[in-house]
Specification:
The structure is a single chain. The chain has about 500 residues and is an alpha/beta fold. The protein has a domain at about 10-260: Amidase signature (AS) enzymes (Alpha-Beta Complex), CATH 3.90.1300.10. About 40% of the residues lie in helices and about 10% in strands. The chain is built from 16 helices and 11 strands. It has helices at about 15-25, 30-45, 55-70, 115-120, 165-170, 190-195, 230-240, 255-265, 285-300, 315-330, 350-365, 365-380, 385-405, 430-435, 440-445, 475-490, and strands at about 50-55, 85, 125-130, 175-180, 195-200, 220-225, 270-275, 305-310, 410-415, 450-460, 465-470. It has an 11-stranded mixed β-sheet, with helices on both faces. The longest helix is centred in the last third of the chain and has 22 residues, at about 385-405. The protein starts with 14 loop residues before the first helix and ends in a 5-residue tail after the last helix. The relative contact order is 0.13.
């Protein structure tokens, strides 16, 4: 088999190229998978992107793909044989699912998540499970009970969160593809600060069965890659109706791969792009704003018509989100009661209530406890209408703002995050400062729409990655990929 790769190293190839070479018999999936496992062994002590590495299982899956190729069989999917990193919030029967929490340390699920099953059926070897903020609560992957992940662009800085492990695995060439989840920006913000691509699909189009819940009305699994096309290919693998998920939508998978290939031709004539006035503030980092303005200029040169759009209720998204999410967290995390699975603190003399209290005190981290308490308060008698009820009304107003905006334009754009990645430890004692990093991403989750972050270069302030966010209506995910691929092609490579 040929090993003609970038400098002889298959870890530097994009997923689409790897798949084509594997299916043509020019590379073996085993060699590609082993190269990524070797890369993990070589560098992950520095980045800590993975919580668990599944070498044996990944190589077995790769061997099955190679046997099928040798037998002349049609590949199980367009990505068959290309390995992937899986966020440690999806259940797996053959490796632990911890959600980066001590309360689930070492726990192995009796069933696979639907998304996990789809990856296996598609012939995609799973390299392992990636680090994250505990139960997907955070914007920096510093809330992991197993230590923070570091940004490959600058290891003194955060890789974003909650899916920092998946983003860092991509940026450090430990995996060509990754899976994340996006509750308020946990795919897009890590993508922005690591110069990778991440998409939050339309709510209900990727199954949540087996996704350990943070906030059920907001959580959405999605694809991550180093290119728009790679991300589109993965999107089509994981999307689709699932009767085991009561929120799953029975609609055809959107033609996102076709849209990405169309966009790569570089023509956005006829596309109307809206710049969201409320997501372009002087409080944002100057280098982020200048990068965004340059990206908008590029879209114009590609033929898009660009107009300013106002979404006046977006300014209340942060307050609304941080009442709705903790309220759902309070409900969802009640299941971790030391009685059924996970950690159990019991000296043999304690009552059930004491065991539960001691276990939750020992097993949950500070941020998880904070959100449980906020949510429990917001749902309590006498406060439900004043807090949670009002937040739901604001959520409706935000969705209406989107509807009005999409009457005027095809997609909306903004910076993905107001800031480049900050120093590890810089904001851990200031929750509000941490929450502000999600200002631009939250509205999409509240509305259930789709959005993507694509790299828009490096900030002139500090030379660190910046992301362009592209938003589209529900069930119009292909618009993201057309615009994202066109912009990516025109932007060219990002060089440090």
């Amino acid at each position: 088999m040929s090993t003609d790769t970038v400098n002889g190293d298959p870890t530097r190839l994009d997923a689409a190229t790897l798949a084509a070479r594997i299916h043509a018999g020019e590379l073996s999936s085993v060699d590609v998978t082993r190269a990524h496992l070797d890369r993990i062994a070589e560098v992950d002590t520095e980045y800590h992107a993975f919580l668990h590495v599944a070498s044996e299982q990944a190589l077995a899956a790769a061997e099955a793909v190679d046997r099928a190729v040798a037998a002349g069989e049609k590949p199980a999917s367009p990505l068959a044989g290309v390995p992937i990193a899986l966020k440690d919030v999806f259940t797996t029967v053959d490796m632990p699912t911890t959600c980066a929490s001590k309360i689930l340390e070492g726990w192995v699920s009796p069933y696979d998540a639907t998304l996990t099953t789809r990856l296996r059926e598609a012939g995609i070897p799973i390299l392992g499970k990636t680090n994250m903020d505990e139960f997907a609560m955070g914007s920096s992957t510093e809330n992991s009970a197993y230590g923070p992940t570091r940004n490959p662009w600058d290891t003194s800085r955060i890789p974003g969160g909650s899916g920092g492990g998946s983003a860092a695995a991509l940026a450090s060439y430990q995996a060509p593809l990754a899976i994340g989840t996006d509750t308020g920006g946990s795919i897009r913000q890590p993508a922005a600060v690591t110069a990778t691509v991440g998409t939050k699909p339309t709510y209900g189009t990727v199954s949540r069965f087996g996704l350990v819940a943070c906030a059920s009305s907001l959580d959405q699994g999605g694809p991550c890659g180093r290119t728009v096309l790679d991300t589109a290919l993965l999107h089509e693998v994981i999307a689709g109706y699932d009767p085991r998920d009561s929120t799953s939508v029975d609609t055809p998978v959107r033609p996102v791969v076709e849209a990405a290939r169309q966009g790569a031709a570089g023509d956005l004539s006829g596309v109307k792009v809206g710049v969201v006035k409320e997501l372009h503030s002087d409080s944002y980092q100057p280098g982020v704003l200048s990068s965004f303005d340059a990206a908008v200029e590029t879209l114009t040169k590609l033929g898009a018509e660009v107009v300013e759009v106002s979404c006046p209720h977006f300014e209340y998204a942060l307050a609304s989100y941080y009442l709705i999410l903790p309220s759902e967290v309070s409900s969802n995390l009640a299941r971790f009661d030391a009685m059924r699975y996970g950690l159990r603190v019991d000296d043999g003399t304690m009552s059930a209530e004491q065991v539960m209290a001691a276990t939750r005190a020992a097993g949950f981290g500070k941020e998880v406890k904070r959100r449980i308490m906020i949510g429990t308060y917001a749902l309590s008698s006498g406060y439900y209408d004043a807090y949670y009820g009002q937040a739901l009304k604001v959520r409706t107003l935000i969705a209406q703002d989107f509807d009005k905006a999409y009457e005027q334009v095809d997609v909306l754009v903004s910076p993905t995050s107001p800031f480049t990645p900050w120093k590890l430890g810089e904001k851990v004692d200031d929750p509000l400062a941490m929450y502000l990093s999600d200002l631009c991403t939250l509205p999409t989750n509240l509305a259930g729409h789709c959005a993507m972050s694509v790299p828009s270069g490096l900030s002139a302030d500090d030379g660190l990655p910046v992301g362009l966010q592209i938003m589209a209506p529900a069930h119009a995910d292909e618009r993201l990929y057309r615009v994202g691929a066109a912009y990516e092609a025109a932007r060219g490579p990002i060089v440090a």
